[in-house]
Amino acid sequence: MTSREQHDRMANAIRFLSMDAVEKAQSGHPGLPMGCADIATVLFTRFLKYDAKNPHWPDRDRFILSAGHGSMLLYSLLYLTGYEDITLDQIKHFRQVGSRTAGHPEYGHAAGIETTTGPLGQGLANSVGFALGERIMNAAFGNDLVDHYTYVLAGDGCLMEGVSQEAIALAGHLKLNKLIVFWDNNNISIDGPVSLADNTDQVARFQASGWNASHIDGQDPEAIAYAIEAARHSDKPTMIACKTTIGFGAPTKAGTNKAHGSPLGAAEIAGARKFFSWDYPPFEVPADILDAWRDAGKTGVKARADWEGRLAKADAQLRSEFERRISGTLPANFDAVITDYKKKLAADKPKVATRKSSEMALEIINGAVPETIGGSADLTGSNNTKTSQTKNITSDDYGQRYVHYGVREHGMAAALNGLTLHGGLIAYGGTFMCFSDYARPSMRLASLMGIRSIFVMTHDSIGLGEDGPTHQPVEHLAALRAIPNHNVFRPADAVETAECWQLALEQEKTPSTLALTRQNLPTVRNDFVAENLSRQGAYQLAAASGDAAVTIFASGSEVEIALAAREALEKHGHPTRVVSVPCFELFDKQSADYRKKTIGNAPIKIAIEAGIRQGWDHFIGTDGIFIGMTGFGASGTIEQLYPHFGITAEATVKAAEARLHGE
Amino acid sequence: MTSREQHDRMANAIRFLSMDAVEKAQSGHPGLPMGCADIATVLFTRFLKYDAKNPHWPDRDRFILSAGHGSMLLYSLLYLTGYEDITLDQIKHFRQVGSRTAGHPEYGHAAGIETTTGPLGQGLANSVGFALGERIMNAAFGNDLVDHYTYVLAGDGCLMEGVSQEAIALAGHLKLNKLIVFWDNNNISIDGPVSLADNTDQVARFQASGWNASHIDGQDPEAIAYAIEAARHSDKPTMIACKTTIGFGAPTKAGTNKAHGSPLGAAEIAGARKFFSWDYPPFEVPADILDAWRDAGKTGVKARADWEGRLAKADAQLRSEFERRISGTLPANFDAVITDYKKKLAADKPKVATRKSSEMALEIINGAVPETIGGSADLTGSNNTKTSQTKNITSDDYGQRYVHYGVREHGMAAALNGLTLHGGLIAYGGTFMCFSDYARPSMRLASLMGIRSIFVMTHDSIGLGEDGPTHQPVEHLAALRAIPNHNVFRPADAVETAECWQLALEQEKTPSTLALTRQNLPTVRNDFVAENLSRQGAYQLAAASGDAAVTIFASGSEVEIALAAREALEKHGHPTRVVSVPCFELFDKQSADYRKKTIGNAPIKIAIEAGIRQGWDHFIGTDGIFIGMTGFGASGTIEQLYPHFGITAEATVKAAEARLHGE
């Protein structure tokens, strides 16, 4: 057998596993695996540095299937090369509840799935974080421990999505030359030929953003190998435009959108078997080909062993720091550092915006936790995301800790996910909360994957003032709280901000959003308490002088208003409690007793938040009083806006007393 | 005075009004108006076709300030040229509550503000819809009635946002040659030099997407004029990269990020006055310059009068159709057409997915309403957005009614807004509901502007099956309902789908989202009722056999489950009502009596929706039973998934009976 025959048969193993699995599931996307099998075979047999039996080896090359609908390509590769999570049985149960082989590759379902993809453009945009993470870790730990490539397979859809431009511009700017993207240039999208909707010269576009880019025959193994070899020695990121045929080998559907997203049907598959002279029953891979694939899965064994040798011989402190960071564990003194800082705050009682409190907390955190990587989508001075420790990462110096992401909220969020998934880093990035809408698809994926990306969202209400309703979040707190497995923190002062940051860093399997004010706020937690009270999500901040007639729940900047309303109500003889609610999600995880006690039995329950009511009924019931927004904000000074929208202590007192007097 | 001196002084009037207004407000962005005053002056004095006293003239050229933070540029122009909405007093009350001169330009606040901008990239992406709308209307009504340009001023931020790539790729593909974009190429973003985050060759990038693009000195009036003249005769859209100095004229802040987003301060403004020899007090424009500007505001008077003459002489039917469409009024027979269709449905009782019901409704609507423009972000066959009347719009044929937007959900949503704002068209576009996240920033702006964009969101729950949690909306209904002034419709069958489409088309000041299923559903509205019952947002679909022990609220695909649960509960002797809830927002607008009656007094209230609970407490109270999702979905067949997540009639009955038995 010539090496070309061997290549073809190995590639065909991918093609038939993919066709057969989609056919059995009666659901899925055979076209991409059939068209890209050559690219994948060349990559996984000749270039990718991996060890299928040790899939978490930190210095492995990463392979990211950005065109996630082609999941059977990845599952086939993982099975063929011998990853233990993906057995033939898993392939046979493609797209069934309980299988690791979900419709789209899901991070955590199996080793070898580096990130969750499917929503188009996300994998490509994640890859910028992966490739940047590699460079940052390389700068910290040297070539001996960190030196790997990030390979991406992206489709036409990935490149049409706007986030692709954010990603490629950022990668080009940062000269991430170990990032290598294959574009599956098959001219077909779901609606038909790509030319129905696009005539972009993608190669020229990537070049305009600082990439190497060129066209190749994406089904010619030697052309693929040559292009990869060149890309590995480039000083820029590389995009290889691989001309392929979608559904290659399907007699009538190849090259058409009919091969994209549905089972080919028995006749087409039979035709493909004939075309490829593949005389094996469904799911059967001939022994010699399976052996060849299993050998490919072992090509990295030596490299991995050598790497382990180098790690073992490395300076003990360096090694233990590397291992700590890769494990995701915080430094041992982290809690003590935060507690000390809280003591200082209790003494200082700063009256600053929580965005400033966040900067102060980060100054402490970034000093204690060397793996944090900060950044902002061109709002550094407004998001207060930069501290004394975080200098700019540039293409000349990856040994720093701050990324100017540009006006690219979506690309930033996707890159944060990539940095986080790479391992060894804790990444946070800032923008205005209103623009969380731009970043939302990636924020959702962080939640679905269960990873520790941290989103710093300042200017969290009408309190931002004159920029007006285009910039004023109203529905965003509710919309972010709606995302499962996403902690939305809205601290009320510098103490809660420190506590919320502590919690965000602790949560290894939940991303966090910190909602922070533009405007100054007083310290409401005046007495030092070692315990992180925000951990409970909601807690009694001020007790009533007697049996509570009123309980006021509030978050963030409105806690100050709640306390002022309480004071007035108490003066008028109405015992009133205040409950601070920095995090709905953590409150929901408390015991029923704690929740019941915290909500309490006051006949009048009020919630104050400069956002919409949605979600607050949980605390105040459907007949509770809500002081907040019912529509969009307005452009004006903060002094104008809070009274304009009736979010004041006076309005709260008035509403409470109207109810107390039975109106 | 030479014409250059005249130009300079006219441009300086913009500069000083902008500096002075920002200074008085102590808030705002002086840098862009100072740098772009020359571009604006050339455009508004020599090219733009407008009549300041008749600002709604349908055939005016459009000017879109995509870099919306430079709002004082636009307000200055509107005041100087004599738009009545923007008086000097408005300029003096820049960014104050109640002023038309909001922080960012807000559609509806003043004539001449063609779209709301501020969130970066949106204006540029809207402009694709404006320019396409012009071509579509031109094809329908001819050069005599529709023949105008769309000019856009975009900043570095607009071009860094991913949506810009979606927009320019689409505009290039459609060869929208009457779209002319000025890029304020000032090298400065908020964090500092653009080079901190970007090295993109923007001219090359636009060229790669099928645009003309070239560099000019953006402060040389003749270079600007020459470039505009060339652009107006191009067969492609044009991007003019205008090299400018941000804050031009400010002695120490010009050319730096200090001129971007804060008042310059008295010393800088005094320095600028000296630099430009502008010896007038704040807000004063010398009479000769104001006169010259007011004359510019009248340059379109003749063109407008000529146009009115042509309209008056046009074929009477064409004229009345043009006027009807521009007014936004539906055809007179629209209601009758829908009522007839509902009669047919009551007879046919189709058992189809609501995405198919939507296609059936659109087949009727597109036949009756010639101004609808359909489209999809590359999911035409899945979104069912195409009907027999809507053939593809191409660069060779704008006289059609369907846009293949490509895999560009965000660009599509922004283009829908532009098509809608252009006037004369009703635009809808489809994607999977999960990817409403990608489109969300533009969907929010549609809501803020109060315009009739229609978003068709199919595959609206775990019911989509095998594609898995990356594609299964869970939080999206809640998140979309959170947006103020946005009607989220989730019809239960073909009849409700027709009603919801009718409502979406009727709502001239509220955008709509239609949430539609992939899976088949039975007709639940079996008897013909002429009245649009969905108009109330929620209504009793099935009465209880006696005093209701249980009320079940449900939307969309879960109404079928609610009816099955009701049947079982009735059989077990528990009188049970079912309330169908196609639209929360419309229900909230009903009378208190209607709402009270519809919610009713049943001791047990249950809501069923294959999404999260958030928002449903409004119907069932905090102690109501919710049958739905609490986290992300899974990949599997629909037959597996509904039982897997406990969303079944059996689970509903069990939960009800447990409560009935006091468990």
From TrEMBL, chains A, B:
Ranges in a coiled coil: none
Complex and partners: Homodimer.
Residue ranges constituting the Transketolase-like pyrimidine-binding domain according to the UniProt record: 352-523
Protein function: Catalyzes the transfer of a two-carbon ketol group from a ketose donor to an aldose acceptor, via a covalent intermediate with the cofactor thiamine pyrophosphate.
Native source species: Mesorhizobium ventifaucium
This protein's name: Transketolase
Cofactor: how bound: Binds 1 thiamine pyrophosphate per subunit. Binds 1 Mg(2+) ion per subunit. Can also utilize other divalent metal cations, such as Ca(2+), Mn(2+) and Co(2+).
Cofactor(s) this protein cannot do without: thiamine diphosphate; Mg(2+); Ca(2+); Mn(2+)
EC number: 2.2.1.1
Family named by the database record: Belongs to the transketolase family.
InterPro entries in alphabetical order: THDP-binding, Transketo_C/PFOR_II, Transketolase-like_C_2, Transketolase-like_Pyr-bd, Transketolase_bac-like, Transketolase_BS, Transketolase_CS, Transketolase_fam
Catalytic activity: D-sedoheptulose 7-phosphate + D-glyceraldehyde 3-phosphate = aldehydo-D-ribose 5-phosphate + D-xylulose 5-phosphate
Underlying gene: tktA
Keywords, alphabetical: Calcium, Magnesium, Metal-binding, Thiamine pyrophosphate, Transferase
GO molecular function: transketolase activity
Lineage start: Bacteria, Pseudomonadati, Pseudomonadota, Alphaproteobacteria, Hyphomicrobiales
Superkingdom of origin: Bacteria
